[in-house]
Amino acid sequence: MEGQEQLLFIDFEFTMPEGKSNPKGFYPEIIEVGIVSVKNHEIVEQYSSYVKPIRFPLLSERCKSFLQISQANIDEGISFTELISILTRHNQHHPTTVITWGNMDMKVLRQNCQLNDETFPFTGTFRDLSMEYKKFFGDRNQTGLWKAVEEYGKKATGKHHRALDDALTTYNLFKLVEEDKRYLQKPNPPTIGDRIDLAKVLNKYAT
Q1: Is 93 part of the annotated catalytic residue set?
Q2: Which domains does the chain have, with CATH numbers?
Q3: What is the pLDDT of residues 14-35, one digit of tens each?
Q4: With CB atoms counted within 10 Å of each terminal CB, which end of the chain scores lower, N or C?
Q5: Catalytic residue of the set 2, 5, 13, 179
């Protein structure tokens, strides 16, 4: 339904340099995307794809090992331009809030757009669930996504560092945190009518 609010849970995986020193001109490029679209508290769409990097098309051994991704996976992925088209489509027709775990996903997306002359696809609001989690529980340090789920006594979805699995895990953690927020909210103060009725009851038992 057009105009209905949409929560968009997004996770990206990025390229990594081989060692501690970055190659000249290196910047992290998006190589996998996971999207979970939620409307009216229900998942209405999931999307997952590999994405071909532009500046450094060959993955480092470190990146392949850490993310368990092969070069063949990436070579068969969509282009960055196609990724922007998909994200733009998700942004259209609905007031959209993008929710991520940490701020790196949107930072890298903005940088990738700037360096490849693409328009940033989102026009709505953004929420960093890791910061909300930190403030809600009074933690000094930011907690990793999967550690946060385990702290709730739950299991994460699928495999860590797979974009769609991490996006789904972010959504599941979002539901847990929101439920806790509602539980801890102070009840509304009694109305004048409530107070009068209570006074009648107290007077009845006082006589």
Answers
A1: no
A2: 6-206 (3.30.420.10)
A3: 999 987 777 888 999 999 999 9
A4: C
A5: 13
